Amino acid sequence: MKKLLVLVLGLTAATTTYAQQLNVPKNKQFEFTTRNTQHGTFTSDEQFTYAFRSLGKNASGNTVFDCKLVKAIIKDRKGDKTILHTDSIYNTSLNSTGVLFPIAMLNNPFTVVVDPKGKVISVDGVLSSLKTAIRPWSLTPEIEKQLLENADKGFTSTMQGLFFLLPEKSLAISPQWQNKDSGTKFKLGSKNAKSIIFNASKTDTSGYSLQGKYAIDPLTGLIQHSQTDMKYGKIDDGLPAKFSGGVRSSQKISADITKPQLDTAWTNMAVKLSYWSTAIKNNLGYDSVKVQSAFEAYDQRYSKDRYYMLSKLGMVQQMRSKNSYQKYDSLLLLTPNKYLEGTHHLFNKLGEALYNEGPASAYDVSKYVYKEESFYDWLQNSMSQSFLPYDDRPNPSAGKAYELLKLFMNDKDSIYQQKANSLFLWVMAEREKKNTPLLIKNAAEFIKMSDVQMQSGNGGRYALLLHSILVKAEVRAEADSLLSHTIKKLEKYTADTKNPRRYADQNILAYAWYLKYQSALSKDSLQALQYLAKAADYSPKGNNEKAHISFYDRTFLKSKESYRQEYIDKLLSSGNEKQALKLIAVDINANPENLPEMQKIYKNRFPGKDFKYFFIQDVMASWNAAPDFKLKNIDGKEHTLADYKNKWLILDFWGTWCGPCKEELPSVNKFYTELAAGKHGDNNFLSIACNDQENKVKSFIAQNKYSIPVAMSDNKVERDYKITGYPSKILISPEGKMMNVQFGKDWKAILKQLNTIYSMN
């Protein structure tokens, strides 16, 4: 019994001793696989496998490892799509710079030196390997700098995360301890001859917390497997942190040796053609000579490679050469549909296939996209126009479009039918306008149509088009019934705040009530005025109630965006000035480009009243206060909202990555130059570059010789100002209240009119 006790005590001492120092035999090979999953405000999912081989101990007693990155798996921010898997490198997506480092370092050796307690002393060879790998890529200077800085400063901590920092004191004496640098507390959990378990924890007053569990090999001191769960806290001033959520991490060791499949030629081609490289670009964009040279170099080898074909399509589409559109369309038709899946090119190919190859070809393309939102957009905004007259003549594309529509309707998948049925019912009626039984039958189909079918196929638009056909065919009872039923449906959809198309439905609803008004005008003028009031009320009250698809709805229906002005005229004619003034204020805010017309109406009707007073008290009353900001100019100057008080301020939100932004910048710069010369009144202007890099913005402004003042976004200002698209213009009044000018509206003319109003005595 005494011998057995001595043996047990000896085993305990041995495991305790071994577990407290790194003791990896020379030539031992192993792999660490780590996975970090970020959740909350931002999401990410990254997995890396590193292969290690011990080279033994150096003169200082530290263990030297030969190391390579042998596998990387990175998912997109949503976590549902893999953008890099080094075992299938040809499916890589280069839309993120996050894939560049693992691609460059894959299977490239570097050295890691670790002391007996598990502390990483040095990591050597990463920068030299990285520089060699990226040299052929011709990365933009800012991206290359970013990669090298991250490798130089951050990779040591990455390696440290793979090794457990062992305690200084013996576990037999002190089974718990605290890391001096991180503040994390560790406690011995359980132990046996195969594994020693340590529990880790940390909390602080900000709400930050970390819980972890590590299994350590008692012989080598290496992590066998681990799991940690970290949650973000709040920033120091007690306000909610910018990031919420946390990170779950895991690690495991394996004796397997991964041999990565490398294709350096492919990766070099892929990066050179990516956004991050200057290999085929000049200062203004793609260089046509370099692009053509790249095509000649790569076409034969990569003509069946998805990445290459998509990159080629993107380059040709962005080129501004004489025949670029024709080249793009031709290349699009030659590209297999499966390559285009998940890209905007597939949407473009639908039309090209229909009009150049026929309905059957377009139907094949649609199989890859019919479940997507882009298919709804194409069907409602593009293909449907084939059934509209062309220069007062039948549209030559109508026949092909009709055959395709029939293919959709005959497909076994109900999704096709849901999206195409409303359009099909109208097209049938349009083709047989004199077939009264068919018109009545189709009207009945709309009336019994489910909400899913109605909303999936933009039923409101086509029901009102059929209503018009019924009226002209003098089938009045069915027309009235269809109109009333459609209004009831559209009111339901407009009231549904979860309906993503509620404002498009609302715009159609406004027209439906206007049709009611027109129908009742000759019979009951009082009732008709109530219908017109409904049409005015459902007209957009601001930019947030204006939907992109409504432009197409109005093209088909020959309707108007707003019926408010017509109702204002009726109110003024009937002497209801108080209600008319309220609607004038609403209309100015909804359509500031109509300001001169509304001002004219006001002056004619109220010649003795001050329009400036009305504008400030009634129109601007609904404007929100402009949020404060503190931003730095690309030249280092600081800007705050207070710097521009007592004057009109134009804020221009843009980015060098934004095509429409770059297209309008020459005009914007001209405006600023004239403003600085005193040609546009005593106003202020500030542009804010968003989702961009300062070096890139500086270079872009310098290359184009622009003089506009540019501040860099703090990633907060665009959220505070509720910017949903780029470019966006915000006009801020001298009183500090703001108005968002819808894209496409003449913001310069609106500013001029506002200055005119403010100059009134």
Structure description:
The protein is 46% helix and 18% strand. Helix 11 (359-366) packs across helix 13 (398-410), helix 13 (398-410) crosses helix 14 and helix 19 runs antiparallel to helix 20. The chain is built from 29 helices and 22 strands. A hairpin with a 5-residue loop joins strand 5 (110-114) and strand 6 (120-124). It is of the alpha+beta class. Residues 620-759 form the Thioredoxin domain. Keywords: Redox-active center, Signal. This is Redoxin domain-containing protein.
Would you report the number of β strands? Answer: 22
Main beta sheet: strand number and arrangement? 12 strands, antiparallel
Write down the CATH class of the domain at 1-264: Mainly Beta
Average of per-residue pLDDT values? 89
Please tell me what the overall shape is: globular
**SS strand fraction:** 15-25%
Structural class: alpha+beta
Secondary structure layout:
Layout: H1 2-19, E1 29-40, E2 44-57, E3 63-75, E4 82-85, H2 100-105, E5 110-114, E6 120-124, H3 126-134, H4 141-160, E7 176-178, E8 185-191, E9 196-203, E10 209-216, E11 223-231, E12 245-254, H5 264-272, E13 281-282, E14 285-286, H6 288-302, H7 306-318, H8 324-334, H9 337-340, H10 344-356, H11 359-366, H12 373-381, H13 398-410, H14 414-431, H15 436-448, H16 451-456, H17 459-472, H18 476-495, H19 502-520, H20 525-538, H21 550-557, H22 564-573, H23 577-590, H24 595-605, H25 611-619, E15 624-625, E16 630-633, E17 638-640, E18 649-654, H26 659-676, E19 684-689, H27 694-703, E20 710-712, H28 717-720, E21 728-732, E22 737-741, H29 747-758
Parallel strand pairs: 18-19, 19-20
Antiparallel strand pairs: 1-2, 1-12, 2-3, 3-4, 3-5, 5-6, 7-8, 8-9, 9-10, 10-11, 11-12, 13-14, 15-22, 16-17, 16-20, 18-21, 21-22
Helix pairs in contact: 3-4, 6-7, 7-8, 10-11, 11-13, 13-14, 14-15, 14-17, 15-17, 15-18, 17-18, 18-19, 19-20, 20-22, 22-23
